Amino acid sequence: MTRKLYAFNGGIHPEGHKDVSNAAPIRSMPLLARYVVPLRQHIGSPARALVQAGDTVLRGQRIAAAEGYVSTAVHAPTSGRVTAVELHPVPHPSGLYDVCVVIESDGLDQGLEFQPLDWKALEPSALRNRLRDAGLAGLGGAVFPSYIKLNPGAARGLDTLILNGAECEPWITCDDRLMRERAGEILQGVAVMRHMLGAREVLIGIEDNKPEAIAALRAAVVAGEAEIVTVPTVYPGGAGKQLTYTLTGRENPAGARSTDIGVQVFNVGTAHALYRAVVLGEPMLSRIVTVTGHVARPGNFEVLLGTPVRDLIQAAGGALAGASGEVVGGPMMGFDLMDLAAPITKAVNCIIVKDRAHFPARAPALPCIRCGACARACPAKLQPFELYWFSRAKDFGKTQAYKLFDCIECGCCSFVCPSHIPLVDFYRFAKSEIWEREQHKSGADQARARHEFKEFRLEREKQEKAEKLAAKVAENRARDASADPQAQAKHALVQAAMERAKKAREGIAPLNTEHLPAAAEKEIAEIEARRHATEAANQETAGRE
Amino acid sequence: MNGSPYILRERNSVTVVMLKVLAALVPGVIAHAWLFGPGILVSLLLCGAFAIGFEAFVLLMRGIPLKPFLSDGSALVTAALLALALPTLAPWWLYLIGMFFAVVIAKQLYGGLGQNLFNPAMVAYAALIVSFPVYMTQWASPQDLANHTPSLLEAFDLVFSGGGSISPDAYTSATVLDTWKTQARLGKAVADIRGLPIFGWAGGRGSEIVALMYLGGGLLLLWNRVITWHIPAAFLAGISVTAGVLHGIEPTRHADALFHLLSGAALLGAFFIATDPVTAASTPRGKLIYAALAGFLTVIIRTFGGYPDGVAFAILLTNVAVPFIDAYTQPRVFGHQHGGKT
């Protein structure tokens, strides 16, 4: 039986270059002397460090806890000593530094005892919390904390659980190798997902350029457990919304979650990590990373999170002569690595060492001729050239009207542009400008509110002053009015009465010390005596000064 | 430094697009030279040279690097389209003025490549037909009708130093569209008009073959994905329906749809001129509206207007409406409910 597939708009067919790295089995790396583990390896708030410099840690020990809802934990990749919790280069397009736990390995690689989770018996929320503490995040690239996505939420069960094994970006083969070598483990992870989400059907979508992975999963799958669906090789067929459409014909409405259309999508790597977290009880300590391009021995590696990129490239035989930089991720959506000291994180699926033959310098851009090739290639059915004109003109209102924020930055438009315009760069620019303006605006709103309150306060004080003044004037007038003799006599009478009342008040002793026991009276007397003595002494000192 | 993507489609540039367009014109040019004599080669050469000259001149004045913009090929496409839209064997200065209007006025003064609102070749054609109507209606006769078809050398001579002893009547004639218009106004019967020697089996003798070659070249462009089907299909449909309705109402006066499709610049316009991406509508629905409107106006201008062909004015008029059409025909974005005005 073949499933009906749906074709999304556009897409491109770049050279795959998968064979560079997909032939050899996944290799492991030797233990390193030093690991640099960032606290922010996922989308959301960075984890909160639980260790400080000088602490010793064991492999698998939680060194940072989830902070807030959208967050997940971080663990020590090996045993050793924490030498610092400090800012360190991380793999990020900006090249900015972020807080990392630096661990000096003791070479023993002593681990905690991992306890498998009884996932069928555990309370769903307890199981999710265990996964949060196991540091699970989506390994497809978005690194969203998995425990949140494994919450079925509303009572109605999920219709379709989609496992994303499309791996549509050129050069990357980590999911391919994982599916070939660990199909059974992936399926065990899928079983846990299905249990947690109550999904009615499970579809595993794999592009038809990975026949070995398809065969491996088909061989491992039990009837009714999941359907392995071969999807056409077209970039970006592995983007979540596009794969969902290909498999189900359902469009994820803009601004809505995929669960709103009864679908949840996970990367096959995440299913494998879930298997480890649940069936083995092991937190997320490593991931598969493709090292490819201009290196001596390209291939896939099981890499401990925190491994510096430099060491990983070394494990792949080192960069060849003529290398011209490194890309983190694929060539379509990845970014230039700024510093080889940056560590592998949960988000890094591939390191490509570039050379000029495969990654030539970009030709200078010519003006847009509105040929529409970008619109025909756009999987979001946008009009990229219109977005380009508006972004260029900084007409950000129009960019939003033309649905800039539906752009997934897949790069198809830039790829096909005959004028070689870096279109996606313009969209990134426009998006960040809009975000910044919104932040600026909310800042300005606060400032305006503060200013308005200040104005109000000044006005109120002015009014109060005016009222006081008016009252005083009225009082003075009243006093002037009372200048006649009759009133003066009355005034003298009042004054005399007040004097008498004052005298009477002074004559009355405080009542709260009456009828006390003798001991208390004595104590009070002593205290009084002491106070008088102190006061007298103080006065003397003050007098001498 | 640029961000991702770090790879681009190979053998893809504005120059490649323009070269594909030029290549698709070759069958039509060969047919033209075969049926009407080598004069077309002279006008192509002159227009091309003038185009490059004007382009380089303005780029230098604007302080823009010459190499990327001269090599983009866009000026040559404009030159080729204008040369094919103008009569051959006309005086050289007609081509010079035409290219001036096309490259300097219609293209560069608007900001150069990609910035012009109006199709440059059609602006030039309109300027010339308004200014020099006589030259614009003397078309080379088909070889088998002409008393004498100038050779390549003679063609150069005619273009640069005028006819001299040879009268233009010896090698030129009016187009079939022109003839139809004048004869029909004189009240001639359709059969009599169709019987004139310059008429072929459906359109003009010779020119109908050239038109079919443009159709072939256009199909090449479609196959090469330089253009989409929307504009040619809607343009030809606009012509066919409008001409068909007029012919149905008054067959003794109005020519049939096939005649309109195969004469004048209909097929050249459908595949090569109306499809100019810079000046045409860009959304799928917008392209259909734009081109259907242009086709409709073409027949209306041919039938009721003062000029023999209507393609140039029809396309210029619809160019005006393009921003409006595009704004109201935005396609539905993935994950959204409706398209239309945003």
Output the keywords.
heterodimer, A: 545 residues, alpha/beta, Rossmann fold, 2 domains, 6-stranded mixed beta sheet, 4-stranded antiparallel beta sheet, 15 helices, 17 strands, B: 342 residues, mainly alpha, two-stranded antiparallel sheet
Summed over residues and divided by their number, the pLDDT of chain B gives a mean of 92
Which class do the helix and strand fractions of chain A yield?
A: alpha/beta
The separation of the N and C termini of chain A measures 105 Å
Order of helices and strands of chain B: HHHHHHEHEHHHHHHHH
* Average pLDDT rating of chain A: 92
The appropriate CATH architecture of the largest domain in chain A is 3-Layer(aba) Sandwich
Percent of sequence in beta strands of chain B: under 5%
| Count of DSSP H/I helices of chain A | 15
Report on this model:
The complex is a heterodimer of chains A (545) and B (342). Chain A is an alpha/beta fold. Chain A has helices at 124-133, 146-149, 174-181, 183-197, 211-220, 240-248, 268-280, 309-315, 373-377, 384-392, 396-401, 412-416, 423-481, 485-507, 518-544; strands at residues 27-28, 34-38, 48-49, 56-57, 62-65, 74-75, 80-89, 97-105, 160-165, 201-207, 227-231, 263-267, 286-293, 299-304, 323-328, 335-336, 350-355. The N and C termini of chain A lie far apart (105 Å). In chain A, the strands form four sheets. A six-stranded mixed sheet of chain A has the order 1-14-13-17-15-16, sandwiched between helices. Chain B has 342 residues and is mainly alpha-helical. Chain B has two domains: 6-173, no CATH class; 176-342, no CATH class. In chain B, 61% of the residues lie in helices and 1% in strands. Chain B has 15 helices and two strands. Chain B has a two-stranded antiparallel sheet. At the A-B interface, strand 16, helix 12 and helix 13 of A face helix 1 of B.
